[in-house]
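Bit of a strange request maybe. I'm writing a small parser for structure token strings and I need a real example to test against, not something I typed by hand. Could someone generate the tokens for this chain?
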Amino acid sequence: MNTLWALYVKEWKDARYVFAFLMLAIVGLEGYGWLYFEPDFAKVGLSAILSYVPFILGGAACFIAPPFLLARAFSSEWKSDTHYQLFSLPVAKFVPSLAKYLVALSNGLLMFFVAAAIMFSVGVEHGVKDGAPRVAYDDVWYVLVLGFTVYLILILGFVTAMEGVKFAVKRLRRLAAVGFWLVSMFAYFWFYGAVVNSLGFLGAVQIWSVMDGQMVMAVGNIAWASFLYPAIAGVLLLGVGLALFEKHVEI
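Reply from user aminoacidic:
Good idea to test on real output. This should exercise your parser:
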């Protein structure tokens, strides 16, 4: 565990400048959007639509940046020829790759918390008036955090597995990685409906509406299986990637 933590800190330091830039960009974009946000379309027209753009860009960065940060962490090792040094450490060969995964996961979550907190604050400030029914804020936060965490587990699992494939094959590495991506994505969506339906007995997360602090009615529900299946798929993909690193790394 101490070795994993040491490698995690090392990987975090390697990514800190790019991560800091992304955090500042998100705060700057959404802070600007908060100052000039105008929800009244009928009143200001096009400028109201444009006021959503900073939040769209900030949200998109949270979804796009983490997998690219993870892919960059691997590719920078290959380009600088430091992967031989990394994998020659007296630890299991999968541990450095796991550290890279955990850095991308934690940094992605931090980005999301900042971006979502700003967007949530804007929504509350410009939301419904006092005394009117509204969606329960804690339910919204719970679903958003859970959904984004599951997304990160899945997409970072894909990236780790693809990088493992690239390391395992000797020729046409990029083509092999793209082929693996296409096949695994097809398999993921092929089994999605069957697995989610078979796990229907797990129930659903309910989202409630609130009026004057009192629960009024459930306004929506999301099956637990729709969170569980991508999380399981992401963990399996992570396992595939780490196993490929463990088996095919030769120093």
